[in-house]
Design brief:
Helix content is 55%, strand content 0%. With 110 residues, it is mostly helical. It has a single domain, classed as Orthogonal Bundle (Cytochrome Bc1 Complex, Chain D, domain 2). Residues 1-23 form the signal peptide. One of its GO terms (molecular function) is heme binding.
Length: 110
């Protein structure tokens, strides 16, 4: 792993800590969540304002493209330093909610 990949992994991990800590305190891991809440963890690395350079922006991404990429991460067909593990945390209905929400967001130029 290169120094840049290590820095990206560390940056994303630090951003995810509060989200993961909040999820651990919920009564149920499968409690219903709205789409904006589901995509909150994505914004640290893929956000329009604070995204890591070189990572794809998710706002405005077509829903089928988002879903296929996440399925490929879950299955291991698409390899990443962290996305394979993150993708496994979402079920099909959550991925669909996220995809629909993100596809309706206006893309912002970097």
């Amino acid at each position: 792993m290169s120094d840049i990949e290590t820095k990206h992994l560390l940056f994303c991990s630090v951003l995810l800590l509060p989200v993961l800590a909040g999820a651990a305190t919920q009564e149920s891991v499968h409690a219903p969540a709205d789409a904006a809440a589901l995509t909150l963890a994505c914004s640290g690395c893929h956000g329009t304002q604070t995204g890591v350079s070189g990572l794809p922006r998710l706002d405005g991404m077509e829903a089928p493209v988002f879903i296929q990429r996440m399925i490929d991460f879950k299955s291991g067909k698409r390899v990443s330093s962290i996305m394979n593990r993150i993708a496994r945390g979402y079920d099909e209905s959550e991925l669909q909610k996220m995809a629909d929400y993100l596809s309706r967001q206006a893309p912002v130029s970097p």
